[in-house]
Amino acid sequence: MFIQNRSTFYHDNTVEYDETDWTNEINRLRDRVELLEKVVSNFPGGLSLFDENLQMVLCNYRQFEMLEYTDDLLQNGLPTMEELFRYNAERGEYGPGDVEMHVRRRMALAKKQLQHCYERERPNGDVLEIRGAPLEGGGFVTTYTDVTERRRDQDLIEHLTRHDALTCLTNRLLFNDRLELATAQVRRGATIAVHMVNLDNFRQVNEEFGRRTGDEVLKLFAQRLRATVRDTDTVARLDGDEFGVIQTGVPEPENAMRLADRILDVLDRPLEVDGNQIRLTCSCGIVLAPEQGTDPDELMTKVDLAVYKSRSCGGRQFNFYTEDIVRKPAVNG
Questions:
Q1: Is domain 163-320 annotated with CATH 3.90.228.20?
Q2: Residue 170: which residues within 8 A CB-CB, separation 6 or more?
Q3: Is the pLDDT of residue 329 over 60?
Q4: Does residue 198 contact residue 283 with C-beta atoms inside 8 Å?
Q5: pLDDT the model gives residue 71
Q6: How far are the Cα atoms of 113, 115, 131 from residue 109, in angstroms, in the given order?
Q7: For residue 4, what pLDDT is reported?
């Protein structure tokens, strides 16, 4: 298109416009630009645009605010993508490591012109969802969305589905997953012990003091049990007053015996709830892997028999699973 003096007509070989049409076209373009500015300014997240040379040509205020850009970044105008990567690397946005290594790796990915979406946790704990889309002819448009609350909600839901709501211990679902992993390690040469722990005569606590007191007793016992094992062991509330422990690294049965003794000892001190001194004991069953199996279901069946033997023999004791244990009617309590 070219302009011939100040003629009434403007043309580009095929189309002719009179001055009114041209004014209308300019107004339409101005309206579109204003609409685009409104979209960019009111976009709920960060939004930036890089041209074919990976030079930033647009960035909304929300991005400056969300990523806490400083004047240093803008002292020579909008940065190139490489300058932005270096700026972020120097202030720890990409975690530890060599600054130039971070820059080279990200520039190599940018030059591949691939669409991408990932989450990045900032040093301040905020979590951003970053989406990048290549543009035809080169360049990139990138959006930043703060998903911190969504991530927290997801983490909370994940925690609630895999932990006991009352005691905050691992629940049966996560315990079973951990046992699957532990037995997989056993098949590669590791050794573990699985303990099942029941409170003796717990039903009487509920009957005498009420369910709320019973719940407090379970919470206090869970705290003591958690403090008795190592960080590498798994402690779970499996059901009611039934708890499970996966003890890793058990080269000898004596290692399992020592832990079982400590578990029995946690109730030597009474549990105090609302001024009531509640005295209880517990019983423990133990099964060893690989000596007594490597299948999770088989191990749980055997440890259940072992704890049954402890309870049926009077409680406050532990027993290893043996082949001569015979299932009898359930012990009340």
A1: no
A2: 162, 163, 164, 178, 234, 235, 236, 237
A3: no
A4: yes
A5: 87
A6: 7, 10, 13
A7: 27
